[in-house]
Structures
1.
Amino acid sequence: MAGVSLKCGDCGVLLKSVEEAQEHAELTSHSNFAESTEAVLNLVCTSCGKPCRSKTESDLHTKRTGHTEFADKTSESAKPISLEAPKITDSKDDTVAMEVDASNGVQSEEMVVPEVDKKLLEELEGMGFPTARATRALHFSGNNSVEAAINWVVEHENDADIDEMPLVPVNTNVDPPKPSLTEEEKKMKLQELRLIALRKAEKEEEKRALEKIRQKLEEDKAERRRKLGLPPEDPAAAKPSSPAPVEEKKSMLPVKPATKAEQMRECLRSLKKNHKDEDARVKQAFKTLFTYVGNAARNPGEEKFRKIRLSNQTFQDRVGGLKGGIEFLELCGFEKTGDGEFLFMPRDKVDSAVLNSAGKELQSAIDNPHFGVL
């Protein structure tokens, strides 16, 4: 029987074509490939027609869309694999095009596939993700972990270019990812955050205690008046008298409007109070909002990070279904489109200061165990 796939002898991944094998080799440095009679899995969703190349990918699709029925069309799509190397197009036309560009003072920029972590790429391919999709997910999720890459795939599953290999200019100076905190640094950071939360809780407790003392004094005072046969004290008359000029001056002071940060903080408090019995869901909402805000702040020029489909099931489960979630995004600068299908932040409405402030408020809400409780 003729081979219907190419199998990488180094990691066991099945590939559908010579082109896929070449991409895999370039990204992983693997060079041991052989024909295989084992076909690449092809599970097609009967609801929307989306093809999935692994059980993991179909499970993710089910989790995101609720679609549970898949037709196994592996045998139908399996075709004898051609071992001919892809034809290399004549570079003559390209040379002419480059000469034209040069004559106009424009120099073509060479694009290359970005480097990603080879071990993480192998793990994703081992789970059944195509090489291009796995590479794209790692590149745009920070190239840090398999979990982050899978979350990116879930959120961008319907992108038209999700299975296209990402390209970056060859001379782009890409800053290396910031080193993650060591275990010791993580412990110190966590301890610092706990101390801040504890101090804040103590202050709130002190305020409540003082308020209770004040109420007790008022009750004792009222009880003494009752025993003496005196009428209850008029609350208006009980207020200490102040010189008229001072009182008049106070009434003329302008009321300071709430800042954007205060509005955001109150919105997050309301969200938590509205869902006080769903701590895990609220925390997930805060983390998801933090991701949306961070993406918009870091990539203000990319429209996909400033546009959220309101009907997206993942968005509804994590943010849209909670009272206060959409309101918080609107405070950050997102606006509902005229057709009500998207939340969109126009490029000229991107305010780094507002987004950074939103990030700080969300981080505080995530880290402070007493947030919204006191």
2.
Amino acid sequence: MIRLSVVYSGISPLLGAEWLLEVERRLGKLKERLETPMIASVNFWPQRLIRSDFDYGHDRVYEGSFVVGLRTWTKTDCPPGKPVDMSKVREITTRWIEQTSKATTRDFLLLAHYDNLPDLKPCTKTWPRRVLRGDIDDDEEDEDQEIQGLPSSTPTQNGESGQSLRPAKDVLNRLKYDDIFNLDEYVIGYKDRVKNKIVEKNAIDWEKNSTTEEWIPEHRIEYFKRISVDGDEVIVWQKKTKLDLIFG
């Protein structure tokens, strides 16, 4: 048996969710490496687990567990009752953890335990999901504005026309450097000149260095959107409607 502990000590629920999804995505690769005739038959517990005494309201550090069951093969190419080769299991699991964790920061930790299971219960925590729409037609954009209650004309946030709008560069800088904002919660909608559509990009991934291939001129930014912990989406700055909830 293996218990894989997925630990997240950061403050961004979105980053925590993405870390968990990345680990879950790579579990299949671990199964492929372990499940050979000379090692073990592998089964995953179908749900992420947490300690039975874990308190969502007070425990700052999240620790979830994926339980991996190992049993002896009973096929002809592996004699019945042959013990699982735990030394090989540890070697493969350690290598998988190193490959999975190589791109993470100190807020993320992945550990393997091979001893008896502690008292666990199913994890019921709801993590936010960042869903980015690749292509947005102009008609779809107008529909989204109506659904979210945004005006289709061009008034300012105070309902007055003619006022100047702070540029996207100022908005991005404030989201980055003002401690009251969490940049991980924001996405940027910009005009893609090749597709001639609106495309969304995570604000934290926005590249300001004009010498890189990923660089996109800031004048092509159409809006900033905040995605809350609960998954709610709110436009907080928009060029077309002159909406500005960042500087107000």
3.
Amino acid sequence: MEHHHENWSGEESVQDTVLRMLVDKYKPLRTGIVRTADEKLKDAPPPITSETTYPSVRTWKEIANEPLLPAIEGHKPWHTTFRPPSHTSASIKFGNIKPSSTRSFSPLTDERTRRTERELIKRKELANRLTRARESTLDYRLGLRDGRDRRPTRVNPVTLKGWQSLVEDRIEKARMAGAFDKVSGRGQPIARVSEERNPFIAREEFLMNRIVQRSGAAPPWVEVQIELESATNSFRETLRQSWTRRAVRMLTVSQSAATVPSLSLATVATMRDREWENRECSYHNTAIAELNSLVRKYNAMAPYAVRRPYYVREVELEKVYEDCAEEIMRAMREKKEEKSGYSMFISMAKPVPGVDGPVDPASSFGLRALILQWIERLWRKFTGLGQP
């Protein structure tokens, strides 16, 4: 009990700290009468002890006279001997290696090693010969020496500075020999393009694009775009020719040549033929499916801004109907001119008035009638027209 009410020394034990944390986390419920702090102090005042213990304080003389090491009876300072500490001793162990006898290789391993060395020597010689041949060819093209000049070959440099010196030497010799006198654009201003001054294109990107453009290369999506354009133009051209022939045949059979001038562009553009559409439907669907497969491939590689929609058969047909109106009108005018020319030939081959019955052109008109009759036969054969 004597340590139960000790004065607080400013430190807190671990048990008290844990208990305080638990109490702060989970507040106990208040029970009984709630009293103030003053009432609690009056009922149970804290005990006060008058005895205070202080630690003993030593003087500096006591501390100075206290020996650092325990004293040994009868020991004098001159009896002390030096002993090195344990950490200063060397921990290196020397091995006793016996001298080995002459190394012996098996015949198989020795032969394999010599073969490998011979192959390496042959490869080095071949590489040196190719290098000398390449340098000789380059010198001959630049006109620096001919085949009779056999100057010693120069060893390739090893450092970057040596390579720079070699390159500068070659360029200077080529310039002195006039190798750059016939370069295209020499003495003229350098051609500039608008992309070179574009602040949104980096310099390295511009140079890379120019190299790709000069070499004729293109990104994969551009090549697919060219293929798609070619396939689309081919399909539309085939569709246009097919509908033009069909429309001209329909107008020729259903209307006479006299009604051709009364046709308007709007009337021809509104013409439709369900029979032709049903007959060509399988071809149209197959061609549209191939075009859409190319579009799908193109959209998978192309940027978002240049992607294309899919093709629809009805949309393509409506576009063909509108675009072919002028071509159909032109074809009908040509048909009218051909019929007028045929009528002129027939009028020239009419018999002489006053002669009854069929007249033989050979007896009535002679050579002229024969020529007209031959032209008429050829005309019927190639145009497929019936009797006028």
4.
Amino acid sequence: MLSTIGRAAIRRGAGARSSTNRVIQSTWLLQRTNSRTGSNFQRESSLRIVDQRAFATTSKTVAKSKTTTTTGNPKAKTTTRSTKAKTKPAKKPIKKKLAAKKPAPKKKVVKPLTEEQKKKAVIRELKKTALKPPKGLGSTPWIVFCGDNLSADNAVSLKNSMSDIAAKYQSLSSAELEALNHRANENKRANDAALQKWLSGYTPIEIKTANNARNQLSKLLNRKYSQLPDERLVRGPTNAYVYFVKDRLASGDLKGISAQESLKLIGAEWKQVSASDKKVYQDRAAADSQRYYQEYKTVYGKASRTEH
């Protein structure tokens, strides 16, 4: 059994086929007559219009409906597909936030150093260059004895403690002094070995620079900074006058005279020495200068500033 909608669709299809056949027959008859009268021309034009309308009706009938119907349910639902494409909303352009500019750093105003501050800065640098050798053990009997008797727990003042220690030291026997001397000599040998090991960690030019810094510190601080005793250091050249002084002191003519008076006499004698006699000492000094320049290059790896 066909539904009411189905039977109506069949009737529409049958009517479309019959109308199409009639159009084809009319067109064939007009082509046979081959008439060029005005009435026939108008009739042909009207038939063409009818043919186009019939073709349009047929195409509309054959086209499938986009509407779907569900049957078998008393409450039939009809759904229609939308042919229009959904358009997505355009994305809004993202505005980049400009980074806040950091304020320019304030320039520090550097105050000029005072003379005292400059001097302290120079001293700090010299102390770094001067190096600091390791502390040694007591190398004299007195220092060894003081180390044995001084105690940080003493309740009395250091002055009284030293007075008591000095009195005890004076009352030591020969055997006790001999034992202290033995310990002091052992300490001295240990100190020398430790110092040589420490010096070996530096180059000769570093030790030479450290001794120069120690000389400057002695002048600036009015305090004696002893020289580092490195045997690798190049001995400085000896001048002609020093050779003359050594010869005069070694002659024995100044025995019993103080060193100050001896130097005064030697200075006066040097002024009276003839040019030929002075040349002997000057030649010795020149030879020693050549020795110095050669050793300086070998040990320090560069030429001396006094070499011409």
